[in-house]
Amino acid sequence: MSFTAIIPARRASTRLPNKPLLDIAGKPLVVRTAEQAAKSNADRILIATDDTDILQAVEHAGFQCQLTRADHPTGTDRLAEVAQQLNLSPDDIVVNVQGDEPLIDPELINQVAALLQSQPDAAIATCASPITEAHKLFNPNIVKVVCNHRQQALYFSRAPIPWARDALADGSRVLAPNLPALHHIGLYAYKVGFLNTFPHLPTGPLEMFESLEQLRALENGFGIAVHIAQAHPAAGVDTAADLERVRAIFANRL
Questions:
Q1: Residue 66 near residue 88, CB atoms below 8 Å
Q2: Is residue 16 scored above 90 in pLDDT?
Q3: CB 2 within 8 A of CB 110
Q4: Among 98, 29, 99, 45, which Cα is nearest to 249's?
């Protein structure tokens, strides 16, 4: 299996300014993420950024970095530019590893790439894990996905899907027994041919209302395969509390 792992890294962050460059046990956050990705089977690890300070930090750590435009509306658009810069072929596979995931499981990266390679009718592969707590099902900040019998996505939503009609008829907020509720994991593998197409796809009403860019693929008829992980991976770094949690984990390793 051959694939490239690309890590988009933007400096702007409303909750954590300069997030990719924040220190974790002596190294920038984005470098810690790249080190985890390098433990996967990827042929190449590359950071995509519009910031020269990030570029210098990444190259100082020995990783390849590619400068991109600063006006990309999504990380997928940034990946598309890099795929074109690298002159990748349409059948090549690119895995998008979020730059704030220093604890990402390298095997999960391998699994999402392998799934896409095994499903020629899918343009994208992603991951999910079973929801086992009711509060997560009803949390709009946790994205849910429902799949068909081939484990391809039917829909992604911030709403509690699937809706257990009988169990919730009285207004209860419970997790119905054996409900196939899945928590989406924001790790994606793309075929380069789709990446070349993505920036030209129209944004539909589902994407606009849900604010989920993966719905653009579904709205335009592209298949998304879903790997089901038995456990949800460690959370990334979105807040100051997340940063301290991850710093403590790395400190305990040293």
A1: no
A2: no
A3: no
A4: 29
Reduce the DSSP state of residue 185 to 3 states and report it: strand
**Residue 94, CB-side half-sphere exposure with 13 Å CA sphere:** 30
Q: Residue 21 has which token pair?
A: 């460059």
Residues 6+ apart with CB under 8 A from 185: 108, 126, 127, 128, 129, 229, 232, 233
CA distance 148 to 226: 10
Strand partners, 136: none
pLDDT in tens, 47-91: 999 999 999 999 999 999 999 988 888 878 888 999 999 999 999
For the chain, give percent helix, strand, coil, nearest 5. Answer: 35, 20, 45
Q: Give CA–CA dist 254/252, Å, rounded.
A: 6
Residue 192's nearest CA partner among 85, 43, 73, 80 is 80
* Cα-based angle 11, 14, 20 (whole degrees, multiple of 5): 30
